[in-house]
Write a structure and sequence with these properties.
Length: 460
């Protein structure tokens, strides 16, 4: 009880963060819209007392740098000391339930229904990926396809058309093979030629062997393209949004080839396959402009998930180890400047081309960036119900942004990890290490959670 009271006493300065943010609309004269992300009552009304307290405790733990840096080691050590059974009893009702939808269709359905009650849509995130150095395993990739199609079906069942499903290309094609392709497609014309060839195959054409790959590698590539084709066709048939996640820079060129090839095959009438743009990278603006031009050249729709990014610290280490220029922005502020520039530019493209040709998801926990996007939408006459510029946050975080946007009529998604505890937690620990800046910056949300608890228990 003493601990609970100390939590409730934490934040009396929330108003100093700014209760209201204002931006003017150019659509109507003398009209001003107010959006408050300090509205804890709206943000947490759907949560029980226990869920709010859990969120505060978990986000507080996520603010400690030592735990974030060593989360995977802590997890592995705890598993050896406590054993899987006891560790699951500790972690499932805490970290797992805070950030993960569950590990079976029923638990995913319950999460989807809980989100639907507050007007938030499901964006399923399977914890399927690999890095270079992993042994190529075609059976594993085929199994990943089956899981992805099952999740696509679930996404449609609970969200209907335009529901979102995230995927990683390295879950479907060997990362080592992708690395070789990335290294041989640095020239822009080769890049476009490969995209066109792969898109033609996925649209029903024949496979063209690649000259710099050996016979076995070409067999693996054809099998990989067939997997991409099956996932893209299934998503297109259900009218889903298939969001291809970004990964490490050494793979991203090949990942972009795969994503744009799928776009060439399946984005004929609207954006089905979307690529992800990581704005912690210095070249994010140039990259999104170049890839947008590729889709225009192919005559297909363009979809973009715009994020700050999750691999920053590893990228900096790799640049030092590899003795090449750091590809990342020097600060969070510099990343935010790139992020806002990318969002503003792409919202302009949405307005210019119309919703059937260009869609974007503003995936951000940064209130200022979200407000700038809202202001841009208003100035260009893009309505929330157009479903062309949408928003996204991680499940279990930034509810003050998510719920408020949904209550104002905006289309908002929660990225929801899915899988068993011992499959998902190592994945989440890697994401935690890579997302330290985001997780350490949850003080604002902890303040609002504590304020909500104080209101419920003490009445003020």
């Amino acid at each position: 009880m003493v601990y609970l009271v100390s939590v409730l006493r934490l934040p009396r300065l929330v108003r100093n963060h700014g209760v209201f943010y204002r931006f003017s609309s150019t659509l109507t004269s003398n009209q001003e819209k107010e959006i408050s992300f300090a509205d804890h009552r709206t943000a947490y009304a759907h949560l029980s007392h226990a869920e709010i307290l859990r969120a505060w405790i978990v986000l507080k733990l996520c603010s400690f740098d030592f735990l974030l840096q060593n989360s995977l080691k802590v997890l592995e050590t705890s598993q050896r000391v406590f054993g899987k059974g006891l560790l699951e009893k500790i972690l499932r009702p805490t970290l797992y339930d805070q950030f993960v939808a569950g590990d079976d269709p029923q638990s995913l359905k319950e999460t989807a229904n809980k989100l639907k009650q507050i007007g938030v849509k499901l964006m399923i995130l399977p914890s399927l990926e690999e890095d270079i150095g992993h042994k190529s395993d075609q059976n594993r990739y085929n199994s990943n396809v089956e899981v992805t199609l099952q999740l696509a079906e679930i996404a449609y069942q609970h969200g209907g058309p335009l529901s979102c499903l995230q995927t990683k290309i390295t879950a479907l094609i060997s990362a080592d093979l992708l690395l070789k392709i990335a290294e041989r497609n640095r020239d822009e014309e080769n890049h476009f030629r490969t995209i066109s060839t792969w898109a033609n195959y996925m649209a029903g054409g024949s496979f063209t062997p690649v000259s710099y790959l050996d016979k076995q590698e070409n067999i693996e590539l054809e099998m990989g393209l067939e997997r991409l084709k099956s996932v893209g066709a299934f998503a297109s048939g259900l009218q889903l949004r298939l969001l291809v996640d970004g990964e490490f820079t050494y793979l991203n060129r090949a990942i972009s080839i795969a994503a744009l090839s799928m776009a060439g095959a399946f984005n004929q009438t609207r954006p089905v396959v979307w690529n992800t743009y990581q704005c912690y990278l210095k070249d994010a603006f140039d990259k999104i402009c170049a890839e947008f031009d590729v889709t225009r050249r192919m005559g297909v729709g363009f979809g973009a998930k715009i994020v700050r990014g999750a691999y920053l610290e590893r990228e900096r280490i790799l640049s030092v180890e590899g003795n090449y220029p750091d590809p990342t922005n020097p600060s969070y502020e510099a990343t935010s400047a790139v992020y806002d520039r990318v969002v503003q530019h792409m919202v302009e493209q949405v307005a210019a081309l119309g919703g059937q040709r260009c869609n974007v998801i503003v995936a951000s926990h940064n209130e200022t960036s979200v407000l700038k996007a809202l202001s841009k939408m208003e100035s260009l006459g893009i309505l929330p119900t157009d479903n062309t510029v949408v928003f996204g946050q991680i499940y279990g975080m930034a509810s003050n942004i998510t719920v408020k946007l949904a209550s104002e009529g905006y289309i908002v998604y929660n990225s929801v990890p899915y899988g068993s505890l011992f499959d998902v937690l190592p994945y989440l620990s890697r994401r935690a290490t890579e997302n330290r800046a985001v997780l350490k910056g949850t003080r604002r949300e902890r303040t609002l959670l504590a304020r909500e608890l104080r209101t419920r228990f003490l009445g003020f």
